[in-house]
Amino acid sequence: MLSKFLRRKKGGAEEEIRNLVDQAHLEGLVPSDEHEMIHSVFELGDTLVRELMVPRTEMVWIEHDKSLRQGLSLALRSGFSRIPVVGEDLDDIVGIAYVKDLAKRSHDHHEAEQTESVEENMRDATFVPEIKMASSLLREMQRDQIHLAIVVDEYGGTAGLITIEDILEEIVGEIEDEFDDGDEQFEWITSDKARAEANLHIEDLASELKVLIDLAEFEGVDTIGGVMAATLGRVPIAGSTITLRGWRITAERPIGRRRRISSVIIERVEEGESSVEL
């Protein structure tokens, strides 16, 4: 009966199936997790790509002229196996670097690490409009065996990127990371060193460190991670460092499938010392 309804195009088939699933759930025939998943499948049909994508402000990318060695280093530090390659700027995506391609080339021709660029070893990028339906994109990605696509806005600029996992998560729920252990948002390790969650509000950080921070200086951001991104001009990855009001802040470990920075190490620095490292 369910397959019969799925084949129908008109006459409220979706609502009928939803009702059938709800009734089956109430009668104990459909477990709660499967009940939720079926409803998520229907909701996916009304979801636009832009609602699920990683926005451009959170994208990790690499310049086309970086060396193969630099590309491998970024992939290892960020934890991403596929990284967009940019030309003149972020609105000029020229391809996708696959860590397995870079690693194979480096293994087969060790000298290529320094002599060849990322651009020479990248693959073509797939572009999709941000107003495309996620369900339609999922079918295309499965059919064409595409793992990652660049999302563009109505003007052709880069709006973000989306992976097949981003879409699947809308159905099955967020994929948790085994290292997401729920540490305290801020803790002192020594009198001159502390660890903080990247999502700690900048005002709370200022209070802990007993420093003054003008929020207007970091317009549009209010967390440690946001301040790091604004200062660096790109998404921080493990090892990225900035200095703020006499304290060195170093991005520590990434968590989750999207490899967002989870925590930072904060250390007091000597007066006059400064650093901004990607």
UniProtKB/TrEMBL annotation:
GO molecular function: flavin adenine dinucleotide binding
CDD domains named among the record's database cross-references: CBS_pair_CorC_HlyC_assoc
Subcellular location: Cell membrane
Principal location listed in the UniProt entry: membrane
A GO CC term assigned to this protein in UniProt: plasma membrane
CBS domain residues: 53-113, 121-178
Keyword annotations from UniProtKB, A to Z: CBS domain, Cell membrane, Membrane, Repeat
Membrane topology: Multi-pass membrane protein
Sequence similarity: Belongs to the UPF0053 family.
Protein name in UniProt: Unannotated protein
